[in-house]
Amino acid sequence: MLFETLKLGSKLFREKISIMKVDGQNIRPIWLDSDLKKVKVIDQRLLPHEFVVADLKSVDDVILAIREMVVRGAPLIGVTAAYGVYLAALNSPTDPIEDAYMIEECTRLKSARPTAVNLAWAVDEVLSGMLKISDPSEKVDAARKEAEKIAEAEAENCRRIGAHGFGLIDKISRSKKGKTVNLLTHCNAGWLACIEYGTATAPIYAAFDNGIDIHVWVDETRPLNQGARLTAWELGKYGVKHTIITDNAGGHLMQHDMVDMVIVGTDRTTYTGDVANKIGTYLKALAAKDNNIPFYVALPSSTFDWELRDGVKEIPIEMRDPDEVRYVQGLDREDIRHVLIAHADSPAQNFAFDVTPSRLITGFITERGVCRASEKEILRLFPEKKNS
């Protein structure tokens, strides 16, 4: 393993630099195939019971993968969409590529899911880079390079989030004189949702790599159980102690001093500090506030929405298929099955996200550092956005 030393404040942070591994093999949730004609992704619907890699060859494939949650998590959705722009250019019906065609395909990509702001941001970044190229023969290559640039930037952002978040966990560990630090997380904001390290999990991995005794309470995260299926799988592969809990257990644990800090990710955050994340996050924040437990949100700058002020009123909340609530997926002997758990005639609603107001959030962990959840503090870290 390689090691890098970063100076954070007065403390030396020793970071292990490594690509995430699955059964000893380096892996990312998305990569461009060696033939440069298809994008490969881990099909996250089947984890942890089956490890399947899917091929995306067209814009339609990318849209379906995002909508059906073959890929999910704001940073990964953005990177996948960025590669979708590349596939649009690669499969252009005309030579040279027409700008109108690219704009239309990008509009389709941005409609794949409504809440994660990374999607539209990444698409616009790649399209903008393409449109700046005057030589038509270089446009496809430009799109590929822009998509790869976004992927590497998101990986680096998560690495830095881990470095900055480590200090928060280390402080708790020192106050507990080395006793186990108990963290709670909701949904999956790990490397599966990003490119490497994750957002909420990056500080966890950093603390683990630096010898801090940590344990993670993993919310199951109904209805698709991304916590039980994905976060627990990730942490287990890395060797981090963890326990899966029902979504409604977090408040009880907090009341009994069994949680030292909550760390979650986000799909869209306003510049005033309101956070849209997986449904149920708001309730965790309320419980944390009531029990004086720090509640942190880890995110790269690409997840900030610099135009929206009031998250509760303005962030679009995705409504998904009610059958995701009515059915549950699991392994039955050797087969993955969907089982009806509700009365067959009972209706259901499936809100994918909720919004946690900034007043309930202790702070943000970003690639530029840690700040309080306020417009003033956010813009202090990102001063270039003040007049955007």
Topology:
Layout: E1 2-8, E2 11-17, E3 21-22, E4 25-26, E5 30-32, E6 39-42, E7 53-56, H1 59-67, H2 74-90, H3 99-110, H4 117-131, H5 139-175, E8 181-185, H6 201-209, E9 214-219, H7 226-238, E10 241-245, H8 250-255, E11 261-264, E12 268-270, E13 275-278, H9 281-290, E14 295-298, E15 304-305, H10 311-314, H11 323-326, E16 327-332, E17 335-340, E18 353-356, E19 363-366, E20 369-371, H12 375-381
Parallel strand pairs: 8-9, 8-11, 9-10, 11-14, 12-15, 14-19
Antiparallel strand pairs: 1-2, 3-4, 5-6, 6-7, 12-13, 13-18, 16-17, 19-20
Helix pairs in contact: 1-2, 2-3, 2-4, 2-5, 3-4, 4-5, 5-6
Helix content: 25-40%
What is the number of E strands? 20
- The CATH homologous superfamily of the largest domain corresponds to Translation initiation factor eif-2b, domain 2
Largest sheet: spatial strand order: 10-9-8-11-14-19-20
> Percent of residues in beta strands?
15-25%
In short:
With 388 residues, this protein is α/β, with parallel strands linked by helices. The protein has helices at residues 59-67, 74-90, 99-110, 117-131, 139-175, 201-209, 226-238, 250-255, 281-290, 311-314, 323-326, 375-381, and strands spanning 2-8, 11-17, 21-22, 25-26, 30-32, 39-42, 53-56, 181-185, 214-219, 241-245, 261-264, 268-270, 275-278, 295-298, 304-305, 327-332, 335-340, 353-356, 363-366, 369-371.
If you had to describe this structure to a student in words, what would you say it looks like?
- Helix 1 runs antiparallel to helix 2, helix 2 packs antiparallel against helix 5 (139-175) and helix 4 packs antiparallel against helix 5.
- The chain has helices spanning 59-67, 74-90, 99-110, 117-131, 139-175, 201-209, 226-238, 250-255, 281-290, 311-314, 323-326, 375-381, and strands at 2-8, 11-17, 21-22, 25-26, 30-32, 39-42, 53-56, 181-185, 214-219, 241-245, 261-264, 268-270, 275-278, 295-298, 304-305, 327-332, 335-340, 353-356, 363-366, 369-371.
- It has 388 residues and is α/β, with parallel strands linked by helices.
- The strands form six sheets. Strands 10-9-8-11-14-19-20 form a seven-stranded mixed β-sheet, with helices on both faces. The chain has a four-stranded mixed β-sheet with strand order 15-12-13-18, covered by helices on one side.
- The N and C termini lie far apart (41 Å).
- 46% of the residues are buried.
